[in-house]
Amino acid sequence: MDGLHIHGVNHSYGDTKVLRGVSLTVPAGELVCLLGPSGCGKTTLLRLAAGLEGLQTGNIAIDEKVVAGDGVRVLPEHRRVGYMFQDYALFPHLNVTDNIMFGLFRWSKKEARARVAEVLRQVGMEQHAEKFPHTLSGGQQQRVALARAIAPEPRLVLLDEPFSGLDTSMRVRIREQTLSVLKQAGVATLMVTHDPQEAMYMADRIKVMGANGQVLQSGRPPEIYYSPVDEYVARLFGPVNEISGVVRGKAVETPFGIIPAPGFSDNAAVKVLIRPEKFQLGKTGDGGANRQVDVLHSHLLGDSTLVEFRLDPAEDEAPVFTVQIPGNFDVADHPEVWIKLAPEDAFVFADS
Amino acid sequence: MAITGVAMLPILAVVVLALTPSEGDDIWAHLVSTVLPDYIATTLQLMVGVGFGTAIIGVATAWLVTMCRFPGRRIFEWAMLLPMAMPAYVIAYVYTDILEYAGPVQGMLRDLFGWQTGRDYWFPEIRSLGGAITMMTLVLYPYVYLLSRAAFLGQSIGVLEASRVLGRGPWRGFFTVALPLARPGIVIGVSLVLMETLNDYGTVDFFAVNTFSLGIFDVWMNMNNVSGAAQLATVLLLFVAALVMSERYARRKQRYHNTSTKFQELPGLRLRGKRGVLAMLVCALPVLLGFVLPTAVLLDYAVRYYEPELALEISGYAWNSIRLSLLAGGIAVLVAIVVAYSVRIRGGQALKAFSRLASLGYAIPGAVLAVGVMNVLGPLDNGIDAFSRETFGISTGLLFSGTIAAVTFGYLVRFLALSLGTVEAGLGKITPNMDGAARSLGHGAFSTMRRVHMPLMRTSVLTAVMLVFVDCMKELPMTTILRPFNFQTLATFVHQYASDEQLGEAALAALSIVGVGILPVVLLSYAIARSRPGQGTGK
Question: Is the pTM of this model over 0.80?
């Protein structure tokens, strides 16, 4: 199968292990995101795939051909890999066209010019072809870097935190465009990010990496979000509500009802994690596991509202929970607030 | 690492020589009981005087130029640097010539007031410690100016505005906020000034001010005692070590201070009327005295004493200077490229530390280095000579000592820091990711070198060659000691003639040195013009 295959890669810098037994596959036309905290070895994996770093153990193949490992080391310039660096690494002494031409030196002049025009059009930078990098904005530089990486029609594209240098509004626009350019090229893409939303948006599949350099979970975005394998992955997507409890008869009792805990033995200490948007607010006790709560504040965020509540109004030290609901929610309009939770929307993990 | 080792050799040689004096050569006790206290006292006085002088002029003008608006400010921004082009010894000759008893100034005063002899009036003696302090202050203050200006520019305007909002006026804000924040920069500037002060030989020789540099020459040349010279040199090295440490310390602090990266157009306190004129005078005076006036005097002399034969003779010396300086500049840059690339490729703390050590030479006064270079090359020559006599029965004589090789080696050790700093800065702009980008775009190591590194490094390499070239052209103490017999450069020629009170004959040569010295000033001014406040690069 075409694409990138990484198998059993370990890597250390001195005594620090940054990658432990990492394996992954990126088929042609697919985009895989490595999601993890900074310093977890994500960038190292990209550099290994590009050949910019020497492989220590394991092997790497591109389009069925081993490029590193098993005594082989193909030099970076012979791998046909497009690499987009976090700092873009545009050549300051070359203008936009010449930056893109840099990788097309084996092409005929005519073909190369046509290709430059084509990729510049794809990224929407035709009118900046003659400009020098330092005169471009961050978003424009990013697009030139992308154009430069894909221009030589690589077999694999590597993106290292491609949007981290951009401001929020720009980021949304640019990542949409980047995704469409990559999909159009139909190339295998491995991208590194620490932003879960970005990973969810871009990726066909996500690999979550922990700080210790291990892959914790792989799967399509909904699997990562709806079925996290552990507390760490569950917490990646923002703050969660947490309740400690003890398992009795394959379930754990919480103020919001009985939550099933299959696979846990009796008396096991567990943590129940509930995402803020999983709670539902109501007016009265209309059946189910409803419960009246004491609302402390509400904060309108724009398209949704954060509501903070506690269970027992009498107790000052009672834990505070957070709900996120669509639309506006004014406390003054709701003298009585009831809360509801579907049992399948809570995650149960061992409390270590 | 071998390169650093070689660069360190002369310094080590001095220390070793000082600690192991040969029988009968050991005049340490004698030195301590006679001249040493005088050397220490004089050197310290000179350092304190020049330190304070340059700090006051440098900081005051930098503050006025960066924070205030007054007529001519844009010009002063770069013009303040002009005295840098003037070697201290040249300005010393010029001022002695105009201010001594027989000079025009005193002559005019006598005519004006009808005085007959020197006993009728008091006039400051220029050839004195005070004179030396004044001369060096006038040409060295630009170091402090440059670094405090950068420090003031780098300060977040926010803290100054905060001090205004908190009720401090602009002047109190200067003393309570801006000055303390700029202190690391000022300390670095003053440290550089003091290193140059310790290095000076021409001025103190001419003024007969007994500093260490002069003492080393005296003990070596007149008493013919090499270990005595080395012992003095070692004491001088202690002074240098203290300076280097204070400079490093300040640099660390500076990094800590420069936390904000926000640059804004500075407020520009508008000075009008009398205050504007005063500010202009404060800035104009150092430039006039340190550059314009001496240059004018030299020009005048050069024209008046012009003779084709003299010009021809001088052009020969100029060719010597240029040859030597180009050679040293070329080698220094080659060495710098090798060191900088090995640090980049191999990395490693040890190599980095060594590269820093190699650049210590810049802090070591020329007189000390000269002692060291002689004592590295001397034994080497003797060794080669003995070997060749034994093996081939031919005496090679002195291969290196007293040749251009010795001078070049001395220059290299002293100015390696300049070329290394410039080349490293240039290389720093080529991020490792650019290498990675070039490689992943299909270019091999050689092609990456040719198409990415060479075009990007060209300017820094040329700058490095130029900086070393200019400093070699001006260098006096090492050239005096290490040059081959009868080998005259512009600097030694000027020194010799001016010391014999024949400034007229030396003017043309002195003017050429100043002319060459203008080059880096132009470069710096250009850099300053490009990094105007509010345009991002506030460094």
Answer: no
